[in-house]
């Protein structure tokens, strides 16, 4: 049984940035054609020798939060049905939003492991604001910077060890 990790969250939180980071080593080898990776939503990755598939969600992303709630629900539900683990990404710059809460309600119902990832924690000064997300009550809480890669190791150690 293969392990499938879905990255879900509102537009612009940094899902695709993390997705590309998780894939970059392999994609560099496999896809020599420029632009090939840009539109991909599935990719293979591995951590500590453990292989897994990553799903990037949010083909609807338009770079703003001005999207239909219904569309978010559909995308999240599709990813959740397919995934064995879920990375729920939020953005420290914007703080906790109503849409975050709605997405989290859907995820909680899935009974699959959910990793809350507070992204854009690029330096230690964002650690304190990131604690706002504790109120969701998620056990598996991580802060990271998809842009720099800092924090991704701790996240992947946990995700892979729960497979
Ligand atoms: P998506 O819509 O959730 O897929 O988000 P993207 O991956 O497209 O990222 C949205 C924007 O946030 C882009 O401008 C990224 O460069 C930026 N971004 C992503 N991750 C980080 C991060 O860790 N720190 C900062 N400062 N910016 C980030
Ligand atoms: Mg995206």
From TrEMBL:
Protein source organism: Epilithonimonas arachidiradicis
Residues bound to GTP 1: 9-16, 56-60, 119-122
Keyword Repeat carried by entry: yes
Gene Ontology biological process terms from the UniProt entry: ribosome biogenesis
Entry protein name: GTPase Der
Domain of life: Bacteria
Gene Ontology MF: a single term: ribosome binding
Domain EngA-type G intervals: 3-163
Keywords: GTP-binding, Nucleotide-binding, Repeat, Ribosome biogenesis
Role description: GTPase that plays an essential role in the late steps of ribosome biogenesis.
Subunit structure, as described in the record: Associates with the 50S ribosomal subunit.
The keyword Repeat is assigned to this record: yes
């Amino acid at each position: 049984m293969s392990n499938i990790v879905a990255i879900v969250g509102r537009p612009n939180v940094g899902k695709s940035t993390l997705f590309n980071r998780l894939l970059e080593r392999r994609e560099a080898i496999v896809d020599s054609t420029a632009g090939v990776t840009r539109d991909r939503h599935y990719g293979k990755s591995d951590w500590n020798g453990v292989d897994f598939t990553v799903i990037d969600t949010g083909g609807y992303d338009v770079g703003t939060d001005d999207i239909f709630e219904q569309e978010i629900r559909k995308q999240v539900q599709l990813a959740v049905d397919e995934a064995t683990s879920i990375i729920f990404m939020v953005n420290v710059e914007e703080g906790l939003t109503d849409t975050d809460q709605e997405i989290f309600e859907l995820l909680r119902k899935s009974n699959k492991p959910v990793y809350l990832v507070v992204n854009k924690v690029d330096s230690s000064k964002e650690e304190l604001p990131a604690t706002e997300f504790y109120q969701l009550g998620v056990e598996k809480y991580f802060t990271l910077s998809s842009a720099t890669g800092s924090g991704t190791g701790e996240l992947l150690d946990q995700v892979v060890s729960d497979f």
